[in-house]
UniProtKB/TrEMBL annotation:
It comes from the Bacteria. Belongs to the ABC transporter superfamily. ABCF family. YbiT subfamily. It comes from Mariniphaga anaerophila. This is Probable ATP-binding protein YbiT. Keywords: ATP-binding, Coiled coil, Nucleotide-binding, Repeat. Residues 570-647 form a coiled coil. SMART domains: AAA. Residues 542-568 are annotated as: Disordered. Residues 548-564 have a biased composition (Polar residues). InterPro entries: AAA+_ATPase, ABC_tran_Xtn, ABC_transporter-like_ATP-bd, ABC_transporter-like_CS, ABCF_ATPase, P-loop_NTPase.
Length: 650
């Protein structure tokens, strides 16, 4: 579908890509991986046409559409959420307007034999076919389903995009891209702004997408779930294998061992050849052999080996001061913002050495509870911090709080004390800031580099309770491994809010699920939690609170319910499930009838020369709109049914 042939791109004399060649095929699911700065984003920009290669060619067949979502982009705030999302359907809306105009002209026509009349009939038929191909019969339902899947609620639909944070506005751009249904989707770190449920929804969407996908991600679980092909950029070259990320890394390790052996053999050959040349350079009897060996070295294709940062594995947090057995104890903690209830009657006890994960949808109160623990918010109820507890906090926006005018070295030097000040460059090197990187100003660093720097600052403080809110956003896989290993070895207590399943796996021993303004404890790791919930993923972690059509009063009841349902409550839930199933059956009968009627009209309209009922065009449009509305009712009814079933299991 898209081919790159010997593509090279250079910046300031440095070749970021050298003779890169590969093919993006129909229905490919490609994971693009490599170290920070390897050229992953640059390659996406080349494919999307944002950048031009220094040499080589990129061939995209005529008519092939490419959609690109960068990590950061300029966002506009001129529309409501629905209005902005509707921009994805510009062609559809234009066609719909043309169809409406043609229907009006045809219904008012007098001369049914004229060329003008027949041309309009032909054009109408073509436009209707194009409208159907582009999904015109269901685009509104698709739009709502996509927005709900990405975490928005129906109550958000008429809000101005200016009211949303940058992360949520990036979700709007992602929704627009997915709804345009390009032939090739290019995604650069799409999970950075998503919660666990939205990530799972996106996984399912991309796996079944009828097109090709090329994505850059540092989320190992996401890559493994979506991609069946891995492209790695290393030392300017492309390695391409038809396997997911984990299988690729195993294959790569095997290849590295083979390559290291070949590298050592080549180095030995080069050393021996150079010794021969040096020894016999000035002997006339050996001149021919010397010149032959010199040419041999000149022609040699030298093996390059990418260095591994094994030093990074040695990083660890300083020994924490000893605290009491109970680190935190919360009783009946409740938090409201005005009339909006976020948390209701939360009870929580954290003991020394616990490693805890907070998981759930965005907006369910995870960060709010973190801020309450840090005593940054007022609340009702009680929260006691244990004896001699020293808290270290990493916020989602921690990287943005750094002083951009300081250098990397000075950023650490200003908080370092004692012997640590003599080891700052060693510490920076272990966290992948090597050589001249230490003298860069913070303002020129990437998001991932800033996050690593903020984490170093935290690791230098002697604390016994670490509270981390989405610490892995913008970190590459290597940096995440460094942090994860350090947290596993940390003898203190850890509370981490994260959507990264691989990061949590093997690190936490307790999961708190945030749902309906309550929390529920699950002992064990993150995948034990998934197995216990009988889920293959965290998709069902939380039903979107605005997706079920449940009234505010019913939501309030759900939010205040205890850890289980009473007998009477279970009876009520069962009645509601039966009612919802009956409603769905009735709607499906209506859909079947409407589809039958529309099929009959389609058959009539396929032979315009035999159409003598001019009102059929107007009735046809009415029936299609009625079908779209009924399909929406069917989706809402299914969402409500799932909501009641989840409540039954809660």
């Amino acid at each position: 579908m898209i081919s790159l042939d010997k593509v090279q791109i250079s910046f300031g004399g440095f070749d970021l890509l050298k003779d890169a060649s590969f093919l993006v095929r129909q229905d490919d699911r490609i994971g693009l991986v490599g170290k920070n700065g390897a050229g992953k984003t640059t390659l996406l920009k080349l494919i999307s046409g944002v950048l031009e290669p220094s040499s080589g060619s990129i061939n995209i067949p005529k008519g092939t559409t490419v959609g690109y979502l960068p990590q950061e982009m300029k966002l506009t705030d001129r529309n409501s959420l629905l209005g902005e999302t509707m921009l994805a359907f510009e062609e559809l809306l234009s066609i719909e307007k043309q169809i409406s105009g043609l229907n009006s002209d045809i219904s008012n026509a007098i001369d049914f034999e004229s060329d003008e009349y027949l041309n309009k009939l032909n054009l109408l038929s073509e436009l209707n076919e194009r409208f159907t191909i582009l999904g015109g019969d269901s685009f509104q339902a698709d739009m709502e389903q996509t927005l709900l899947g990405l975490g928005f609620e129906r109550s958000d639909f008429n809000r101005s995009t200016a009211e949303f944070s940058g992360g949520w506005r990036m979700r709007v751009e992602l929704a627009k891209l997915l709804l345009k249904k390009p032939d090739v989707i290019l995604l650069d770190e799409p999970t950075n702004h998503l919660d666990i449920e939205s990530i799972q929804w996106l996984e399912d969407f991309l796996k079944s997408y009828k097109g090709s996908v090329v994505l850059v991600s540092h989320d190992k679980a996401f890559l493994n779930a979506v991609c069946n092909r891995t492209l790695e950029i290393s030392l300017g070259k492309i390695t391409d294998q038809n396997m997911n990320y984990s299988a690729f890394m195993e294959w790569k390790q095997e290849q590295r061992e083979i390559q290291l052996s070949a590298y050592r053999n080549q180095q030995k050959m080069i050393e021996d050849t150079e010794k021969f040349i040096e020894r016999f350079r000035y002997k006339a009897t050996k001149a021919v052999q010397v010149q032959s060996r010199i040419r041999q070295l000149e022609r040699l294709d030298r093996i390059e080996i990418e260095e591994e940062d094994n030093a990074a594995l040695k990083i660890k947090f300083p020994p924490p001061p000893r605290s009491g057995k109970v680190v935190l104890e919360a009783k009946n903690v409740t938090k409201k913002y005005g009339d909006h209830l976020v948390l209701s009657g939360i009870d929580l006890q954290v003991e020394s050495g616990d490693k805890i994960a907070f998981v759930g949808r965005n907006g369910e109160g995870k960060t709010t509870l973190v801020k309450i623990i840090l005593q940054q918010l007022d609340f009702s109820g009680s929260l006691k911090v244990g004896h001699n507890v020293k808290v270290g906090y990493f916020a989602q926006n921690q990287a943005r709080l750094l002083d951009g005018e300081l250098t990397v070295f000075d950023t650490i030097d200003e908080i370092a004390t004692g012997d640590v000040r003599t080891k700052i460059r060693d510490i920076l090197g272990a966290f992948l800031f090597s050589g001249e990187d230490a003298d860069k100003k913070v303002k020129v660093l990437s998001g991932g580099e800033k996050s690593r720097l903020a984490m170093i600052r935290l690791m230098l403080e002697p604390v016994n309770l670490l509270v981390l809110d989405e610490p892995t956003n913008h970190l590459d896989m290597r940096s995440k491994e460094i942090l994860k290993d350090a947290l596993i070895q940390f003898p203190g207590t850890v509370i981490v809010v994260s959507h990264d399943r691989e990061f949590l796996d093997g690190m936490v021993d307790c999961v708190y699920e945030f749902r309906n303004k309550k929390i529920k404890q699950h002992l064990g790791g993150i995948y034990a939690f998934l197995q216990k919930k009988k889920m293959d993923s965290l998709k069902e972690l939380e039903m979107p609170s605005g997706a079920s059509g449940v009234s505010a009063n019913e939501k309030s009841k759900q939010g205040s319910q205890a850890q289980g349902l009473s007998f009477e409550e279970r009876k009520e839930v069962n009645r509601s499930i039966s009612k919802a199933e009956k409603t769905i059956a009735e709607i499906e009968k209506s859909i079947e009838l409407l589809e039958s009627e529309i099929a009959g009209m389609d058959e009539q309209l396929s032979k315009p020369e035999k159409v003598d009922d001019v009102d059929i065009y107007e009735r046809y449009e009415i029936k299609k709109k009625e079908l779209a509305k009924t399909m929406e009712q069917w989706e809402n009814a299914h969402e409500e049914l799932e909501n009641w079933k989840n409540k039954k299991d809660w």
